[in-house]
Amino acid sequence: MKILIAHASRYGNCEEVSKYIAKKLKADVINIEKENPNVENYDLVVFGAGIKIGRITKKSRKFLENDFKNIAIFVTCGEAYRDEKKAISEYIDPIGKKFIAKAAFGPVFDFTKNSKMNFIEKFIVRKINEKEGTPLDYSKYNDLRDWKKIDNFISNLKKVSI
Ligand SMILES: Cc1cc2nc3c(=O)[nH]c(=O)nc-3n(C[C@H](O)[C@H](O)[C@H](O)COP(=O)(O)O)c2cc1C
Questions:
Q1: Contacts of 47 by beta carbon, 8 Å cutoff, 6+ apart
Q2: Residue 108 in contact with residue 144, Cβ under 8 Å?
Q3: What are phi and psi of 80, to 5 degrees?
Q4: Model pTM?
Q5: Residues 87, 80: contact at Cβ < 8 Å?
Q6: DSSP code string of 22-81
Q7: Which residue owns the Cα nearest ligand 1 atom 28?
Q8: Of residues 26, 69, 62, the one with CA closest to residue 45
């Protein structure tokens, strides 16, 4: 079984999760913002996308128009930290594609000097998280991912990809 983990990350979270999943599944890993893989070569494609203002990237939407033998999806987003099911229904279900597995994983909010967020993006993240009551340190790297959930997703993928 040949597996591809394809990702479209704006700030690096779903890229990092993709590389972790790829290592565990001995899969190829590709950034679809930079490369256009031939999905026909793969029995299973796992697509990972970061959410920004409710959206995946334009290239992600185009990529998902491919005909896949089997496609699974995960998103990384703030909503998943609060309510994973809501995140799936808001960001994955409207895509309207049949996924063999789907999941939403929590966000990373980096407020250090290495952050990929600009000043305005940091401001937006701060406003939303203050409103939602998410505990963040606005001078640090906040990792709100639950790696056990990511490991469970990988276990499910192993079962469906036998
Ligand atoms: C400007 C901005 C807008 C965001 N908008 C949303 C959003 O609409 N919904 C959400 O659940 N998370 C939102 N997030 C949180 C991101 O989804 C989260 O940081 C995630 O880790 C991004 O994944 P990526 O690093 O792979 O792009 C936003 C983050 C930023 C910086």
A1: 6, 7, 8, 32, 60, 63, 64, 71, 72, 73, 74
A2: yes
A3: -65, -25
A4: 0.96
A5: yes
A6: HHHHT-EEEETTT----GGG-SEEEEEEE-BTTB--HHHHHHTTS--SSEEEEEE-HHHH
A7: 52
A8: 69
* Helix and strand counts by DSSP (H, E) for the chain: 6, 7
**162: pLDDT confidence band, cut at 50, 70 and 90?**
low
Residues β-bridged to residue 50: 76
CA 2 / ligand 1 centre spacing (Å): 30
Q: What integer pLDDT is reported at residue 66 of this predicted model?
A: 97
Q: Which of 5, 14, 47, 52 to mutate to test the pocket of ligand 1 (most atoms within 8 A of CB)?
A: 52
Q: Which two tokens stand for residue 42?
A: 């793969």
Under 8 Å between Cβ of 104 and 80: yes
Model confidence over 82-136: pLDDT tens digits? 999 999 999 999 999 999 999 999 999 999 999 999 999 999 999 999 999 998 9
Does the CB atom of residue 51 touch ligand 1 within 6 A?
A: yes
Domains of the chain: 3-107+144-160 (3.40.50.360), 110-142 (no CATH)
